[in-house]
Design brief:
single chain; mainly beta; Neuraminidase; 2 domains; four-stranded antiparallel β-sheet; about 40% strand; Kelch domain-containing protein 2; repeat; kelch repeat; Kelch-typ_b-propeller
Amino acid sequence: MDLSQTRQAPVEYQYVHRRAGHVMVAYQKRLYVWGGYMELPHSQAYTFMTSSKSSYHSAIDVWVFDPLLNMWTRKMSRGDIPQQLSGSCAAVHDDHMYMFGGWANIASDNMENNLNFLWRLQLPTLTWTLLAPNGTPPFPCDKAACWVHNNRFFVFGGFGPARSSSQMEDVGVNFVRDDVYYSGWIDQLVYYDIENNEWVWPRTKGVKPSPRAAHAADVCGDKVYIFGGRFKNARMNELHCLNLRNWTWSGNLMDDTLQDIPVGRSWHTFKFVSENKAVLYGGFNSTEQVLNDIWVLDVRSKKWCKTLNCRASSRLWHTAAVAHPGEITFYGGIQNNLLDNTRPKDHAEEMLVLRFSPPCLKRLTIEAICEAGEMLRSQWKVLPQILQHILAVRLSPDNFS
């Protein structure tokens, strides 16, 4: 394994990397980032009309990272552009990103901060569509987990406003209200049938996970694995699996008798990097510590392995995606206690790349030439034009990734 990180951006571009609560997906070997918010420097925290210490990112902007060029590009989206949001969840199906829910920066008279809208972003044209599916929609929430399987976009869990017990019973959902706030945790499992444009609430068997939020989930074959999340005052280290063919829950797969397992957490990432291996990184534990540990789960043996040779920064509420086989990228997040309102928050501004297998020869060659810098520029003329262009972009001072 090899853990690398991009160089830090010049000051004028650093706001791009000050981002948490955003979404990031991989599409055609590029990474697409949208939304989220930015914690303001302490000196700027009270310079606006309100006493807010954060600023939401533009809803029009979609930032695209090309690993081959090692460059970010800001693009303008169009169509039914969503509100400024944090805590939404998103996944890719064919040429579209589907995005659900989130916390709206500004609530209106007839709309709460938590949303249950479903948007579709056509990635080639960056055109948004606000969908209006048939059926009973999910309950409004943020910090849910989502995934795509068999032409279906799934949503599980989340944190949102209370609803009547009759509404919950109709779709077989449990809701546990927070002791302080009107909102609470939910265990909703619902999918959007992409072909038939409708919400469906499947009936499942087995031991369903408890309500939770700020958990993470990813698909491996016909199964989805869900790790961690917060429920009441606990940040859990439970690992659950749902068979998406027979709708059977596994129950908690974690063996508490083993000492070498991840601690409970929320606001982490959990992503498959190969057919059988998932990577867990970072998050926020029950003692309000920001974590920097990296674990690899082999789903065949259900065994965890902590990576000891990778030095990663502490971060929470970041994102992870796999744009190239055997390579997982982590982006954004906060480096210190998000719940401590007495101290300014530090963003994790460097992108981390964890490689489990060597990249292709083309990428290795490009990276080797870039390390040599200007020493080999006189010899570029023997290379194909496309490679000359890639090298010129990579070594340009305007490349701020």
